[in-house]
Amino acid sequence: MTIVTKRGDRGQTDLAGQVRTSKASLRVECYGTLDELISQLGFVRSICAHVPTQTLVKDIQRVLFRVGSGVATDPNAAVEAPEISTQFVESLDEHIRQIESTGTIASDWSIPGEDAAGAAMDLARTVCRRAERQVVRLAASGESVDPNVLVYLNRLSDLLWLLARQLESSAGVDSRLRDADHPGKPWSSAW
Q1: Which of 63, 80, 136, 142 shows the greatest Cβ crowding within 10 Å of its Cβ?
Q2: What averages of pLDDT result for each successive group of 10 residues across the chain (191 residues)?
Q3: 71 within 8 A of 30, measured Cβ to Cβ
Q4: Cβ–Cβ under 8 Å, residues 26 and 137
């Protein structure tokens, strides 16, 4: 058995259910970006010293594999896409509530880079937002997409922003866009 199948040498790939499609299809672009997000979150875990955040991120990665599998399943395939349960979204909501209840999260935009783990989390957030936009494009093109995929990605990007701020706060850094030397009206703390 080898990873080299040569089946993709001409720009085609298999979706779940053995449906062939172009590697340039919107569906492939969506699950490819989800794969990128999973990898970026792995990088976050590798440089993050905060064990509860590492554990949470690993749990999120597991759910994202399920989300990616759902997106990678052609609606006409003989197999069903895995369900993206509302419980996954509710779990993210609970983590968001917990972080926001601490009252220590900045109520302004942040400039990534004050802390390596926080900056890596911000990069993961931007990849998550791109995946979300691609899922919207896929649905807008008429393709079938589980609506909970979009809800999950939207909520996940909110959580990743908060986790980045939490990591910065734990590291004792201030990444606020506005300060005494850079005044201006801060943005809302809610995205």
Answers
A1: 63
A2: 67 62 75 96 97 97 95 79 90 95 72 91 97 96 93 97 93 75 57 38
A3: yes
A4: yes
